[in-house]
Amino acid sequence: MHTLTLPTSTTMLAWVCTRYGGTDVLRLRTLPRPVPGPRDVLVRVLAASVSSADMRVRTQKLPRGFGLLGRLAFGITRPRQPVLGTDVAGVVEAVGRAVTGFAPGDAVVGVAGVAMGGHAEYCLLPGTRPLVHKPARLSFVDAACLPFGGLAALHFLNKANLRAGESLLVIGAAGAVGSAMVQLARHRGAHVTAVCSGGNVALARALGAQAVIDYTEEDFTQDPQQWDVVADTVGASSFAACLPRLTEHGRYLAVAGSLAQVLARPRGTRRSIGGPAAERPEDLQTLMDLAQAGVLRPVLDCAYPFADLPAAHAYVETGRKRGAVVVALP
Ligand SMILES: NC(=O)c1ccc[n+]([C@@H]2O[C@H](COP(=O)([O-])OP(=O)(O)OC[C@H]3O[C@@H](n4cnc5c(N)ncnc54)[C@H](OP(=O)(O)O)[C@@H]3O)[C@@H](O)[C@H]2O)c1
């Protein structure tokens, strides 16, 4: 447990990732509070997700083949952006003079995404980043659960052009991406089979999966059936291994795939889709509209106090979280 010292109005507390490594590289520091430029919005953070991306940046445990690319993207010896944190929910503190649509006091949800910076008392969101008003029915903590997994799930379902009546297999259905994908696919009218461990079967069914395969008991690659789309949200399979399980025009979604999976060439009429998910404002609005309508439910594993962010990181690193892990600020 870390002791918080109260900041002045020009400073803020932030968790700084001082270098790549274990959770001991995370240090609570007092930093200058960002000052919004003309198109920026400064958000007072009340909840922020601790995503698998935060954990991957800190540890540099990346899918096979991405090691060098990761260092080039995030910083060679330490993170170029030392304050991690991909998604925030909070209250607008200040807006730049060219900002329209947001005013101080508004409750919002924002995606710092690859630019990061959410694990702080204040997060600066440039005008190009997704930022929307928080749905009234969601708490700040629940709202912070949705963007990371939801945006990735929506992006890949759109890339696959999943249509009503098609079948989808979701590997990793209990994770942040998987739990959103099961719900979004059901909303599209797809038939969803979830793959998870026995302890998450009830969760997968509650999210809407019509069939569930417990991978500790059964290997889906040996299953006689085929699916129109196979989405691997945890990197537990390969395009080659899933080919026999894909229908004639089947699509394999390498959400967490190695470089080889991401670059895999089509095999006849079957293809693999990979790469980074887009972070589009309109997609964040879609997710929040679905949440407000009760169609997309946040899956919160655990909310930690901001002071316990290293413990949250350690839990995410187990690879066993259900849905999202969030840190909450007073
Ligand atoms: N391409 C992109 O732009 C993009 C965007 C977002 C995320 N990602 C990547 O997507 C991956 C998933 O992210 P996430 O946040 O959803 O992960 P996560 O929440 O950390 O995933 C944890 C879940 O994975 C499940 N799991 C672990 N091994 C499994 C296996 N062999 N088969 C089935 N389920 C398994 C666990 O459930 P059980 O206990 O039931 O096994 C656990 O609930 C990460 O690697 C992330 O980097 C990529």
UniProtKB/TrEMBL annotation:
A molecular function (GO) term: oxidoreductase activity
Species per Swiss-Prot/TrEMBL record: Acidovorax kalamii
Domain of life assignment: Bacteria
Protein's name in the database: Zn-dependent oxidoreductase
Signal peptide range: none
Location of the Enoyl reductase (ER) domain: 21-327
Pfam families: ADH_N, ADH_zinc_N_2
InterPro entries reported for this sequence: ADH-like_N, ER, GroES-like_sf, NAD(P)-bd_dom_sf, YIM1/Zinc_Alcohol_DH_Fams
